[in-house]
Give the backbone structure.
Amino acid sequence: MTWYKVLSNSSLPWFRIGLTAIFIASVALRFWGLGRFNNLVFDEVYYGIFANNYLIGKEFFNAHPPLSQYIIAIGMWIGSHLPIGQDTVNGLTGSLRSTWSYRWLNALTGSFIPLVVAAIAYQLNRRRSYALIAALFAAADGLFLVESRYALNNVYLVILGLLGQLFFLIALGQPQKRRWGTLALAGIFFGASACIKWNGLWFLLGVYMVWGTAWLLQWQASRIKGSESDSLSSPNPIHASNLSRFSKKLYHKPLLNLTQLNIFQILLNFALIPALTYSLLWIPHLRMNPTPGFWQAQHDILAFHEKIGSGDKVHPYCAKWYTWLLMIRPIAYFYQTAQTTREQVPAYPPLPSNAVRVIYDVHAMGNPILYWLSTATILLLLLLLIHRLWLGVWITFAPTTTNYITLYLVMNWLANLLPWVKVTRCTFLYHYMGSSVFAGLGLAWIVDRWLHRKKPRWRNAGIIAIALVVAAFIFWLPIYLGLPLSPQGYKLRMWFPSWI
């Protein structure tokens, strides 16, 4: 009897224990040493200050929609009234605030992302082992850990977009009469994600791509079936055999209900409700900043980003979209040197290179093994989907769970990636965070299938993949957390010159 069958037959609630352990580890890693580096790290120089502006009533221009700054401001206000986290204080946001106050809510929010990813995985095929592996991979992504430990906005964009995807899948698994409320809730989350950054709309775009493709496949299948019924005197043996086999493989899973959603439901829940949510969330900002108005603010945001150039002169860590797939150019959010671990960091001016004995580096980079394996997996799934869609043009697209999970993962990955192809402004690795979730879900799905194979070599491959991802996360953990490293230890983790 294999190990996963032993777990399945065990009276222990291993699924709940596993998810709880992943969540506790995520919380611990995000909150441990959260006040380290008593200054503003990377884009905290914007979001921390903007959030404080809301608290002190100061008017300002923001190049992004306001929701993430509302959330950080709420966390900052609560954190300023708590008896913990007050050991490091600065006035860099415009008021005297503790670093813990403007970071803790990000840390808490980021801790829930692995659970949301697990819920999406479970909705896809109702397999707990898949959900658990997906949660583990999400928790082992260093970029999500780094983004969660500072007052930045990408964790809010991702978790709100994923919640929209989750409730979309939950709605598909419900009876048609009960779907309206769940679909509306999905639309609210999509609108909120767009109110973090406009690229939150890519999660919504994924719904349109998956739903539209499902309808095209159904239309094509009906044409094929109609042409076959018109030529019963000389039936095509390939078509007939495939349709018979495919009908036996029809599984009742949420994604197979995609074409039960009509155009009215889509426009109401995934156009009108997101637009209304996005607009309403601007009201607090506009009350404090009446000029410019709503439409002028949208124009000014677009104009601001269109003026941003690209290349090293704009920012040394600019990275084109195609480099994200292999994580060629991650970002150093914080870099300081010292002679001993007892020195205060940051300290200015920096030490000369020959005097450096300790390096503090916060590197916004994903787990390299996870990224490379996920990219290989999603590209293979893309090729598989193209092949299946091509067969669907001439024969039929089998309505199986496997095909529809492939469709869902690939379309959402593309939806979060392809809009960046035509963007000419400076972009960064963190813009890939939305796509990386679906690539990670693809890898977890494949690994889970390996673990359920009868042949030991497949199960061993799955175990090795999980072990490599976890080992890589532990190895690079010091540069996710900004722990002190020797120059040799730092160089050991910078595998490529483009990472530095």
